[in-house]
Design brief:
The protein has 99 residues and is α+β, with helices and mostly antiparallel strands. The protein has one domain. 56% of the residues lie in helices and 12% in strands. It is built from 5 helices and 4 strands. It has a two-stranded antiparallel ribbon with strand order 1-4. Strands 2-3 form a two-stranded antiparallel ribbon.
């Protein structure tokens, strides 16, 4: 397990905090949205896998400090975000989640 601060804002290339509706966009928001998104593949996903995604999203969302993530959870997050995040968002996420 490794600890990550997923509450930190995502920074633009110029170092300023990325914003949405006047609020900083933080890594945990991007991750939780990605874990909970539903596409064609998710509709065919078994209940056990869907519950795993839900439970991880719930744990990350509830964290107000450092979040413990296993290497398997990191790979799961990267896989989900690779399909839903922008190229930039995915890149900075991968930089954050290096272990």
């Amino acid at each position: 397990m490794a600890k990550f601060d997923l509450n930190q804002p995502i920074k633009n290339l110029d170092g300023t905090a990325m914003e949405s509706q006047g609020e900083p966009v933080v890594f945990k928001d991007m991750i939780v949205n990605s874990l909970l998104s539903t596409g064609d593949a998710e509709l065919k996903m078994e209940g056990k896998k869907r519950l795993e995604l839900f439970e991880l999203a719930k744990r990350i969302h509830g964290s107000n400090s450092q979040t413990d993530l296993s290497s398997g959870e990191i790979e799961l997050i990267k896989g989900r975000c690779s399909k839903s995040a922008t190229t930039y968002g995915y890149g900075v996420l991968c930089e954050l989640l290096k272990i």
